Amino acid sequence: MDNSWFKELVVYQIWCRSFKDGNGDGIGDLYGVLEELEYIKSLGVNCIWFSPLYPSPNCDYGYDVADYKDIHPDFGNLDVFKEVLDKAHSLGMKVIMDLVVNHTSTECEWFKESKKSVDNPYHDYYIWRKGKNGNPPNNWLSNFEGCAWEYVPECDEYYLHTFAIGQPDLNMDNPKVREEVKSILRFWLDMGVDGFREDVITYISKKEGLPNGFPLMPIARGMEHYNKGPHFMEYMQEFREVINEYDCFVVGESPMTGPADAIRFASGDDRILDMLISFDHMSADCLFIDMVHLPFSLKRMKKAFSKWQKYLYGKAWNALYIENHDHPRIISRYGNEKYRTESGKMLATMCFMQSGTPFIYQGQEIGMVNTKLHSYSEFKDVMTFNGRRLLRKIGVPDFLSIKLMNRTSRENSRTPVQWNSSNYAGFSTVEPWFGVNKNYKKINVAAEEKDKNSILNYYRKLFKVRQSNDIFIYGEYKEFYKQSKKIYCYERRLGDKRALIVCSFVSRPVEFKAPLGYKLKRSKIVLHTYKDKPKAKKNTITLRPYEAVVYLYD
Ligand code: GLC
Ligand code: CA
């Protein structure tokens, strides 16, 4: 099956709980999605990725799945989902689901059986071990909640959870578990969905004997023994056989991977993934994870993008993204809230003129920014509470750690989408499950619709330009002025066509001289982020704060 159509998609991610409440209970749902499918389509989007919609006790907001073949009652039911699917298809949009199979919820029937006794037929669906001298089986720490092992007296054993306590890891070495995964894939593909985003998929195979991890790691200790583990490729090939029976695609979330992994996993006809969600470019203001905050470094960001662009070209395909439900808002990170409109448009240009499939996240298209919470009682996410716990341990008081959370936590991307300036930002008619950002009167879809120079209308233009010029989809990438701490400039090249993308990352005017071989005046400006186009003099332009411009030579 030739599924290379995934290269021409523009994907919109919905984190349903905060998208739109259609039935007035304060929680976003599929009724709300149904109302807004035309809006999503109007952005130039042709694929929707749903973060998990399955029944879940929400210890990790859906990423703890209790039933893989149903819809959470908060979101609707299977009938409403089918309605959404059909309508999306009739509007020319594909739909992909989140596949979370590294772990389930403790509320999943398999786990409930598994923990009854060591003889239960489901016991071996999970990773159980005896303790060692009254201690857990090894020194692993979870990503979310301290020790990676939880003791269950009924079995006199511990189960492994690399994430929250409510997210026990599946034992993928058990062929029955792999059969379950295939059956989940078939269930949704038979219904008509067009693929999957596979959650922390590179974690599914754990090293035999579960050896101790590197002792200094304060979280996710032991990860070196389960990221890209021994049977990862083999199990993925097994799943891929099912995928290959359908006209669909899969994108795998792959923490701590580099371009060489991408080529291993996502190139050739026997590839196990069509694209990877990588993290290098998301660490230009932190050390590996957002909470270990550092000042933003443009050079680090450029280096990361260029590395992936260069290595993958002609061999594997990139997934392009700068926002999703796991990171703070990008304007607040790599842009500038004081220049929200300017930096919002520039960041879009910077990322989505590159080679790969664009993924945008709800609210990104209207330039939503980070929120501000004042007390831990307003926070919702297990990861935030883990951060607080770790910081308390080293003596950081709550009033200080809250400041860090406001800047770095993924709560920032989970506030309700701001639809208009009415109560609760038009997200719901009652008080939403999570606080609406106070700036909603100014930043909302309705206001952005009215303003022809808004970020929203810029996204529409950008995707139109991208989708109607092959060079932006298939062109080769090359970076200029790598050493600049102010400007990001790259070219795309396809046959004898060329394009030059120029982005300013500073709030002062900055001079930009075209690289050798480029005559600015001979080109066509196909995208510009200020009302008027920049004017070239002696092949030089002065970029205004956070300005971006795209020159096309065809
Ligand atoms: C992925 C998801 C994240 C979730 C974690 C555990 O990283 O994107 O939201 O918390 O996996 O499932
Ligand atoms: Ca609702």
Structure description:
- The protein is α/β, with parallel strands linked by helices and 554 residues long.
- 27% of the residues lie in helices and 16% in strands.
- The protein has 14 helices and 20 strands.
- It has helices spanning 30-42, 78-90, 109-114, 175-191, 232-243, 259-266, 298-312, 330-333, 340-352, 382-393, 398-408, 445-450, 455-468, 470-474; strands spanning 11-14, 47-50, 94-99, 128-129, 149-152, 157-160, 195-198, 249-253, 275-277, 286-287, 289-293, 319-320, 357-361, 476-480, 487-494, 497-504, 510-513, 524-528, 540-543, 548-553.
- The strands form five sheets. It has an eight-stranded parallel β-sheet with strand order 9-8-7-3-2-1-13-12. A five-stranded antiparallel β-sheet has the order 14-15-16-20-18. It has a three-stranded antiparallel β-sheet with strand order 4-6-5, with no helix packed on it.
- Helix 6 links the parallel strand 8 (249-253) and strand 9.
- The radius of gyration is 23 Å and the shape is globular.
- The mean pLDDT is 98.
- Bound molecules: alpha-D-glucopyranose (GLC) and calcium ion (CA).
Topology:
Layout: E1 11-14, H1 30-42, E2 47-50, H2 78-90, E3 94-99, H3 109-114, E4 128-129, E5 149-152, E6 157-160, H4 175-191, E7 195-198, H5 232-243, E8 249-253, H6 259-266, E9 275-277, E10 286-287, E11 289-293, H7 298-312, E12 319-320, H8 330-333, H9 340-352, E13 357-361, H10 382-393, H11 398-408, H12 445-450, H13 455-468, H14 470-474, E14 476-480, E15 487-494, E16 497-504, E17 510-513, E18 524-528, E19 540-543, E20 548-553
Parallel strand pairs: 1-2, 1-13, 2-3, 3-7, 7-8, 8-9, 12-13
Antiparallel strand pairs: 4-6, 5-6, 10-11, 14-15, 15-16, 16-20, 17-19, 18-20
The structure holds alpha-D-glucopyranose and calcium ion.
